[in-house]
Amino acid sequence: SGKEIDYPAILNRVLPPEIKVIAWAPVETSFSARFDCKKRTYKYWFPLGNLNIKLMQDAGQRLVGEHDFRNICKMDVGNGVLNYKRRILSVDFKRLSISEDAPYDLVELTVVGQAFLWHQIRCIVHILFLIGQGKEESDVIDKLLDIENFPRKPQYDMASEVPLVLFDCTYEDVEWIYDEDSLKFVIKQMQNLWTHHAVKTVIIKRMLDELETLCTIETPILNQADCLLPGVKPRVYKRLLDRQCCGKYYF
């Protein structure tokens, strides 16, 4: 018949609910989704909790530009990564709501760059959280990026992968083809997912409200974001630059 195959509709019938296709594009056989990507956008969502967003925003701006990020990533020497210079185009924080119950308000972190190293975003978020908690100064970013004076990465964990999403990839000369019916199908499926998660969120929040009325502690419990920083929490915090360091790499 000559009619184009409806790729999104075919794929969406067999994909799990969390994975959907919304568009497709014809490309050359030499096209690489990874290496032809000109810009990547990552987003990371987290509750405000006890975090100081102004401090985190200031620290985030220090990441913008081209830097050697070997101290803010997970070494991937086994896969032949020898160049740790990457360019970050922007780092922005957006508070998604402002309510009387501020610690439960969600914040959206958006990081845009040309390319990223292995677990670079999760390492960035961990350090920004430490700054937002007042455990580190904003200039720790500058020091970690100063490879001459700090050539070895201090030991620290990565932030949780759960809130991290590769939100967008930008390509040159790629014209996406959308299908209205497929978009409607995906919207309905995503609305179902949203309903299930939103209802669970309300149930848990209602339980928290009741529990907090029974708690007589004067100082509020602000642990909303703590679960996003895995690892053992020491009684006495040791600053990043005072910790043991990983091996030194020369490239």
Architecture overview:
The chain has 251 residues and is α+β, with helices and mostly antiparallel strands. The chain is built from 5 helices and 7 strands; from the N terminus they run H-E-E-H-E-E-E-H-H-E-E-H. The strands form 2 sheets. A 5-stranded antiparallel β-sheet has the order 3-4-5-2-6. Helix 2 crosses helix 3 (120-132).
Order of helices and strands: HEEHEEEHHEEH
Helix percent band: 25-40%
Mean pLDDT: 92
Structural class: alpha+beta
| Number of alpha- plus pi-helical segments | 5
Strand content: 15-25%
Shape: flat
Radius of gyration: 22 Å
Tell me the number of strands.
7
Q: What does the main sheet amount to?
A: 5 strands, antiparallel
Q: What is the CA–CA distance across the termini?
A: 57 Å
Low-confidence stretches: none
Strand order of the largest sheet: 3-4-5-2-6
Keywords: Isomerase, tRNA processing
Protein name: tRNA pseudouridine synthase
Family: Belongs to the tRNA pseudouridine synthase TruA family.
GO molecular function: RNA binding; tRNA pseudouridine(38-40) synthase activity
What are the SSEs and their pairings?
Elements lengths: L6 H6 L10 E2 L14 E9 L5 H9 L3 E4 L16 E11 L10 E8 L6 H13 L7 H6 L18 E7 L6 E2 L1 H35 L37
Helix pairs in contact: 2-3
From the structure above, extract its key features.
PsdUridine_synth_cat_dom_sf, 5 helices, two-stranded antiparallel sheet, tRNA pseudouridine(38-40) synthase activity, tRNA pseudouridine synthase, 251 residues, alpha+beta, single chain
Brief write-up:
By secondary structure, the protein is of the alpha+beta class.
